[in-house]
Design a protein that fits this description.
Blueprint: H1 2-20, H2 23-35, H3 53-68, H4 73-84, H5 86-111
Helix pairs in contact: 1-3, 1-4, 1-5, 3-4
């Protein structure tokens, strides 16, 4: 069970870094600027597997399983499912953020705006 929880946390971290934080877009823009010696910047290209949360979850999950000695078929299937659900994980994180924002706005309007 601990392995599955760790895989889920790896998936959450991957989705946050790649899809939500914008860190990969900044990295790609900086890389393009560096390679063109400042003539070009932007993140309008693919840098798989680093800008694909599905790919990153897959590879990070497999690496984790390999180094923890848990490289079994059942855990590989868990990694497959988590990678497949990368879009759903992103949407769930954003939904939780929106719900908390709405709760805070409601509390603010009831107690502060009077």
């Amino acid at each position: 069970m601990e392995t599955i929880i760790n895989l889920l946390m790896i998936a959450l971290i991957c989705v946050f870094v790649i899809d939500i934080s914008g860190a990969i877009d900044t990295l790609k823009s900086s890389l393009k600027w560096l390679l063109t010696k400042g003539r070009m910047s932007g993140c309008d290209y693919r840098l798989k597997p680093f800008d694909c949360s599905l790919c990153t979850i897959w590879w990070c999950g497999l690496i984790y399983l390999f180094f923890t000695g848990a490289f079994t078929l059942k855990y590989i299937v868990v990694v497959c499912l988590l990678a497949t659900f990368s879009g759903l994980i992103k949407n769930t994180i954003l939904l939780v953020e929106d719900i908390i924002t709405k709760i805070i706005q409601t509390i603010y309007s009831k107690f502060i705006d009077k």
